Amino acid sequence: MPNGKNKSSSQGQEQTKPVSFEEFIDLELKRIEQARKNKMGTGDLRPFVQLKVGENVVEFVKRPPRDHPIYSGKKIFRVVKDGMEYDLVFSSNTRAYARLLQLLKQGHTKIKIIRVGTGKYDTRYFVEAAD
Q1: What is the pTM of this model?
Q2: What is the full DSSP assignment across 18-84?
Q3: Closest CA to 130 of 80, 76, 78, 59
Q4: Distance CA 56, CA 13 (A)
Q5: CA 125, CA 34: separation in Å to the nearest integer?
Q6: Fold classified for 54-129
């Protein structure tokens, strides 16, 4: 380090500095969108299905679920509800998930999901065959 300067920190690292505030915002939005796409993986995404309190009937698409890219222990299934495809997340350490797998193994694809509760800590899900 001659003259007390560390040249290695600035060598080989070219950073684009925005010219204006608007350009900065555009670059940041592009960066955030790219980071989101990288986290989510394939890009084969659907909106998450909204389950109302009570009975909800969905049809599971016969393909293996994906691991949730952000939350470990969660699986993303593809389902059809009211003629539209959605993604549905299940925690893999719940009884509902184990029951779902049993039903799918038995050949059931139409599943009744019963939602009880509305809050973060009191909502529970139960699954039954709907066909």
Answers
A1: 0.66
A2: PSSHHHHHHHHHHHHHHHHHHHH-SS---PBPPPPSEEEEEEE-SSPPEEPSSSTTEEEEEEEETTE
A3: 59
A4: 53
A5: 34
A6: OB fold (Dihydrolipoamide Acetyltransferase, E2P) (2.40.50)
* Amino acid present at 95: R
Q: In this structure, what are the phi and psi dihedrals at residue 9, rounded to the nearest 5 degrees?
A: -70, -25
Among all chains, which residue has been given the structure tokens 């009744």? 112
Extents of the domains making up the chain: 18-45, 54-129
Distances (CA, A) of 53 to 67, 82, 119, 123: 26, 17, 11, 9
- Indicate the residue type of 70: I
Place of tokens 């555009």: 26
In whole angstroms, what is the distance from residue 28 CA to residue 26 CA?
A: 6
List the chain pLDDT tens, one digit each, 131 residues: 444 444 444 454 555 666 788 888 888 899 888 877 666 555 677 888 999 999 999 999 999 999 887 888 999 999 999 999 999 999 999 999 999 999 999 999 999 999 999 988 999 999 999 97
